[in-house]
Q: What sequence folds into this?
């Protein structure tokens, strides 16, 4: 394509924090002509710096981006949080764990260091999710030559992002796997289709758009490009590939016929996210409070133990609505399939 991201194909490998995105996946995507993102979320700045270096050492196309979680200020009700920790105690006891009833709200820690890294060693593109940082941070990233993209989930958010000075938008439809980047985690995500959302955003702002959410086949890519997107992002389709670092429990669940649908849940992390519908969601969705990252930290040891034990019932199995199309094999093959007919 496409002056916007400078990749051969108008296809983006979405950032997937928590394991799935690896340096090997980024390399495979560069080789296949797609535009890949490294996932900076949950990571220490040092670990992110090491990954950026490794991607540079791959000597691939050189086109890649880094995705950051913008630190939030989600309020969490301390009493509701304690009650939820008590409710989860029997789940944790299965693994001999005790969950910490004190909310940890620490996400600000690493932001300055990650920003400093990206200002000292600029990368071609920086994408932001979970809201917007100080406009001065956006301006600073642009000054060192990075293009800055903001994740948005509505036309109203797109206008706010434009006014904050970003270069482009990552429009995330509600069909997307993983966390919603909505600026308002308490809002009920509507069921707008990805092509309709692209049209709404394009009508509201003039910035270039990458769109993701529920893409399963080449036809979906064509429809989204025709709707006005410059590029189409895929996440879930890459989760089972050879280069994905998703846990085996997650990979297996995506192909397990026992899982028949995805739902939006805040029970694991306190922020709405789409994943395979499992027992943990049934048991806790109605009682879980909101509040990211406090809930993320609360449930993390339990989820780590579940992933290790092959317990798909207690794990956040992030997946978009197209999960049935996620296949094993080289990630480059997924891109080749999606690019057919472009
Ligand atoms: C396992 C997983 C992890 C994700 N992690 C991130 C992330 O770290 N940052 C981000 O901006 N989006 C993240 N997302 C959302 C993707 O950027 C993208 O919106 C989504 O994958 C597109 O929909 P699809 O999964 O249906 O292809 C994640 C999605 C998944 C499935």
A:
């Amino acid at each position: 394509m496409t002056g916007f991201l400078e990749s051969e194909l108008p296809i983006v490998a979405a950032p997937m924090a928590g394991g799935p995105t690896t340096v090997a996946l980024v390399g495979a995507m560069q080789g296949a002509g797609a535009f890949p993102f490294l996932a900076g979320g949950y990571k220490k700045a040092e670990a992110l710096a090491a990954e950026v270096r490794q991607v540079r050492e791959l000597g691939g196309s050189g086109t890649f981006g880094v995705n950051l979680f913008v630190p939030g200020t989600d309020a969490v009700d301390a009493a509701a949080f304690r009650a939820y920790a008590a409710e989860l105690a029997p789940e944790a006891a299965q693994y001999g764990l005790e969950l910490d009833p004190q909310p940890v709200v620490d996400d600000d820690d690493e932001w300055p260091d990650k920003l400093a890294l990206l200002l000292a060693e600029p990368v071609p593109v920086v994408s932001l999710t979970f809201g917007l940082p100080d406009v001065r941070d956006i301006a600073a990233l642009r000054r060192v030559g990075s293009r800055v993209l903001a994740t948005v989930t509505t036309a109203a958010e797109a206008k706010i992002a434009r006014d904050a000075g970003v270069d482009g938008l990552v429009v995330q439809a509600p069909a997307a796997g993983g966390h919603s980047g909505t600026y308002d985690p308490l809002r009920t995500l509507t069921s707008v289709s990805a092509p309709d959302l692209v049209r709404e955003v394009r009508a509201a702002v003039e910035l270039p758009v990458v769109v993701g959410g529920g893409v399963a086949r080449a036809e979906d890519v064509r429809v989204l490009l025709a709707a006005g997107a410059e590029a189409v992002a895929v996440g879930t389709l890459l989760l089972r590939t050879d280069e994905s670092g998703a846990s085996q429990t997650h990979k297996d669940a995506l192909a397990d016929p026992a899982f028949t649908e995805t739902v939006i849940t805040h029970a694991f992390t306190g922020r709405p996210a789409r994943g395979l519908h499992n027992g943990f969601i049934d048991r806790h969705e109605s009682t879980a409070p909101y509040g990211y990252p406090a809930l993320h930290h609360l449930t993390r040891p339990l989820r780590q133990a579940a992933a290790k034990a092959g317990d798909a019932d207690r794990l956040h199995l992030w997946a978009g609505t197209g999960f049935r199309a996620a296949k094993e094999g080289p990630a480059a093959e997924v891109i080749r399939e999606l690019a057919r007919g472009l």
